[in-house]
Amino acid sequence: MHFLKLSPLLLLSLALLLQGVLGADPLYHFCSTTSGNYTSNGTYETNLKKLMASLFYKVPSTGFGVDSVGQYPDRVYGLGLCRGDVSSADCKSCIVDASSEILKLCPNDKEAIIWYDYCELKYSNDDFFGKIDTKYKFYMWNTATVNDSASFNNNTKELLTQVATQAYHSSKLYATGEKVIDDSRKLYGLAQCTRDLSSEYCKECLDDAISDLPSCCDGKEGGRVVGGSCNFRYELYSFVNS
After folding, report:
1. Where does the signal peptide begin and end (predicted)?
2. pTM for the whole structure
């Protein structure tokens, strides 16, 4: 029996073709305006494609992976993170989607980041591993509002603070939780950091994100603060996989 051995880059290319009509839309993305551009078909682009192939293999098994490829000045650093409750198969699909979409949305940019509901993918020509990303952040919120905003906001902050504490004390820097807020409603929360951060930096990142609650989500039934190094989400319904 003969087996055809395919290179990682070719396997990633085939996966991208298969995912082309199946992928979900990204939540958000940023293309760097300060990191410069790379030349098409040049060394940086070659290294970037090798990096994407590496993350395609590394991330799904544990839900997180980092790698760097090449030498200065064409070295590229990358990170992939999947939501803590996502299966390996769904994680792989999300990373494939992200790899394809980020190159289309940010052509020739030396740094970019993209988020989906299930994953995040980032690359840069700067070594960002172990550092809190303060450059990239966005908010999302449920358009529905609550009547008792002051009480609801307090409950939301209490739940997210509790979940964040569990997250930065866990090995996966990920946690979920819930809180009964009255006879008919239960609040659900999630907090997660990229696993290149220390527990201390994870706490710092999540504390900063939670401090944005009044800006993003005052009186909203659900909301998220999503950054390059950490994120949280809360809703009045369960949104993670059991």
Report:
1. 1-23
2. 0.89
